[in-house]
């Protein structure tokens, strides 16, 4: 459900030529968005699946395509709390170019909570005139 909603939002508001970065549970977001995807779950990303990259190289790869959007799995609906690698990505100065734009709560909140947080590059966010408290 949340993957569908995120993918649908991206398809309606961004171009299929834009890049999407997903950390780590891509689910169906790439399918529904129709966007080119850097997938840290390595399901849709042969480069990550077949490469033995250092932590620094993996963080650099996240930013390499200058993604217009990024979707993160988290254990919190308010900020990204997930893995040391997700911390390294979000603490990188390049991530300051992204704004939390949409929150997709887990439909199983009473059992397990892994919401999806959608970030947009600031220029995209400004163009869409979104309220980042959604």
Topology:
Layout: H1 2-13, E1 19-23, H2 29-33, E2 36-39, H3 46-50, H4 55-64, E3 69-73, H5 84-91, E4 98-104, E5 116-121, H6 122-128
Parallel strand pairs: 1-2, 1-3
Antiparallel strand pairs: 3-5, 4-5
Task: Please tell me about this protein's structure.
This protein has 134 residues and is of the alpha/beta class. The chain is 35% helix and 20% strand. The protein contains six helices and five strands. Strand 1, helix 2 and strand 2 form a beta-alpha-beta unit. The longest helix is centred in the first third of the chain and has 12 residues. The model has no long low-confidence stretch (mean pLDDT 90).
Which strand order does the major sheet show? 2-1-3-5-4
Continuous helix count: 6
> Major β-sheet, in short?
5 strands, mixed
Number of DSSP-assigned strands: 5
Can you tell me the overall shape?
A: globular
Helix percent band: 25-40%
> N-to-C terminal Cα separation, in Å?
17 Å
Q: Kindly provide the radius of gyration, computed on alpha-carbon positions and rounded to a whole number of angstroms.
A: 14 Å
Mean pLDDT: 90
- Beta-strand proportion: 15-25%
Spell the H/E element sequence.
HEHEHHEHEEH
**Poorly predicted ranges:** none
Structural class: alpha/beta
